[in-house]
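The pair is quoted verbatim as follows:
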Amino acid sequence: YVVNVAIGSPASTYSLIVDTGSSNTWIGADKSFHETNTSILVSDSVAVSYGSGFFEGAAFVDQVALSDDLVAYPQIIGVAGFSFGFAGYDGILGLGPPILTNGTVSNFELVDTVVDVLYYEGHIQARVLGAALAPLNANGGVGSLAFGAPDPSQYTGLLSYTNVTKAYPSSLYFGIDLRFDYGPRTIGYGSGIVDVGTTLILLASDIYEAYANSTGGVYDYSVGLLRLDEEEYNRLQPLNLRINGATYELTSNAQILPRTLNVDVGGDEDAYYLIVADLGYPSGFGLDFILGQCFLERFYSVYDSGQNYDNTDSRVGFAETKYSFSETN
């Protein structure tokens, strides 16, 4: 998911990836940064590594406008001198907890996120982000972000919260504890993170293997996902996520890649590809799953940073939406 952000004065517009799994906002991956009247160099060294990319460069204070009413200033942003893994995008809008910025910018212990600056400057009432994503074949895959409070028009069910987990390293992120049930059977539990910047649902290898065995999915090396035939798809059972007493059901349709993408990803147009993939290591190390867009397109999510910079009073909320049980894929 991408948002257009106006930076500087006079402003230039940059296309940034929305990411709750990191907290540095930066530009320069594609479109070059142009210094303006509001640009002030504050550090000659900033660097952040991601699961599938990296950038390094300098840091500036500048004006970051999400809309006419949401202008974050003074906002520290990174300007990439070098980056990889972000082809076609200008950078990242980092909306995770500020503790993740520790050690990323020289001369700064932590860096305020855009949400922090909007709050401290009085533009929003709380350090809260609401994310309404939509499946590809519903609403054109277009989502919306709400800053300062959840947007009730974007969800239909009860909005329920859970505190951020105490399990490290998920505790540094918008991390939560949950249990995975496939049909009537528990296939795993643990701590993990909620990340708008990740596409799939990623599970620790033992939980993933239990899911694969339960569904009958066979790994398709040309696509990199589990594949089902039509008969196996018709037998698919709900994947239920049990979070702090609430249940969030991924229907059989919600567990597959939109079939309009099958050929684009190198697959067979008649096949069914599951959106659950392998993290590549076993559970028990404090990061047992990542709930990415394929889950978040079915449920509204809220990221409440609380009052503490160390993320100890943060919480994450979820609610059903009109897409939770839709047959869009």
User: Anything to note?
Assistant: The helical segments are 114-120, 205-215, 230-234, 293-296. The mean pLDDT is 96.
